[in-house]
Amino acid sequence: MKATARAHTNIALVKYWGKRDAQLILPQTDSLSLTLDPFYTDTTVEFDPELTQDQLFIDEKAVPADKMGKVERVMDTIRDWKKQSIFARIHSTNHVPISAGLASSASAFAALAAAGAKASGLNLSRRDLSRLARRGSGSATRSIFGGLVEWHRGQDDQSSYAEPIMEKLDFGLEMIAILVDTSAKKVSSRGGMQLSVETSPFYPAWKEVVKHDMTSMKQAIASHDIPAIGHIAQENTLRMHALTLSADPGFTYFDGDTLRAIHLIDDLQAEGINCYYTMDAGPNVKVLYDRHDRKLILQRLGQVFDPARLVVATAGPGVYYL
Ligand code: DP6
Q: Measuring from each residue's beta carbon to the nearest atom of ligand 1, which residues come in under 6 Å?
């Protein structure tokens, strides 16, 4: 009746930006990500026949029932699959180096799915765990697995799941997060992607971009070609952010520091240093590079940004039980 799971967050190299089914969280496109080592969530789920509703505590703080919609979707799916109606107490703790906008729903819902399924007595494959995590948040689908992971758009609920491409990385791809801002985001990824799907005239082109990027990204991974991986990821992120600029009303997740980081990385690239940027639904910038260049890149980034706000992330593992 009780289980604890740890899941790590992930960063998309080919982004998921749009749903075609908001209830089941079926995406418009495939996507591809790297699971990260230093950022994770531990979640304990304990079913208790005495409870009349689920109770959620995040970092020891009780979450009001009206803020539990996404969690309820995962828990109700567990009850549905298990054919039982018992509620649970859920304790979730986020581990991020400094609280800086990297706490992700990806690790949270992957840990919830794994702990909840096990505590209920459901014995799910990792594929089905990823389908379950998907109900909480799209990016959580991929955090069930370690290393480089692909989420298949699929045809329906059954066929939209994640799968590892390379669970243990056998080459030196790494990431530095530049934590430029700590304030809460103004436009959620959920709202931002919906507005993009509904109003950006470029959305049909984005779907073609992703098809192409998935193929070339997988080729680049197979040949351990970090400059190609970085370049594709960088172009893909710019095209994703072009959807926000071209939405109605248009908006952006970038701020001044985001542009400062982009210019700095452009300069490093012009000097022949292989590093590339990617951004998600917030102003933080993540830099991709080969681990052999870590020292040099940290040093150069540290001349412009506070070194305490640079966090190195290597590839992390898939979900596991504690
Ligand atoms: C930019 O997974 O947070 O990070 O499915 O609505 O919960 P919901 O969205 P979420 O969106 C992630 C968007 C992204 C790109 C990505 O992770 O692929």
A: 12, 15-16, 25, 31, 105, 137-139, 189-190, 280-281
How far apart CA 191 and CA 188 sit, in angstroms, is 5
- Name the residue of 28, 189, 280 whose CB sits within 8 Å of the most ligand 1 atoms, as the mutation to test its pocket: 189
Q: pLDDT tens track of the chain, all 322 residues? A: 999 999 999 999 999 999 999 999 999 999 999 999 999 999 999 999 999 999 999 999 999 999 999 999 999 999 999 999 999 999 999 987 544 456 579 999 999 999 999 999 999 999 999 999 999 999 999 999 999 999 999 999 999 999 999 999 999 999 999 988 666 667 889 999 999 999 999 999 999 999 999 999 999 999 999 999 999 999 999 999 999 999 999 999 999 999 999 999 999 999 999 999 999 998 999 999 999 999 999 999 999 999 999 999 999 999 999 9
**Calpha distance 243→150 (Å, rounded):** 22
Instruction: Ligand 1, residue 190: give the atom nearest the CA.
Output: 6
pTM above 0.85, yes or no: yes
Measured from the Cβ of residue 154, the count of other Cβ atoms closer than 10 Å reads 16
For residue 270, report the distance from its CA to the centre of ligand 1, in Å. 31
**Cα of 271 from ligand 1 centre, angstroms:** 33
Question: What residue owns the CA closest to ligand 1's atom 12?
Answer: 139
Nearest to 109 by CA among 79, 75, 81: 75
- β-partners of residue 173 are 290
Report the 10 Å Cβ neighbour count for 34.
Answer: 30
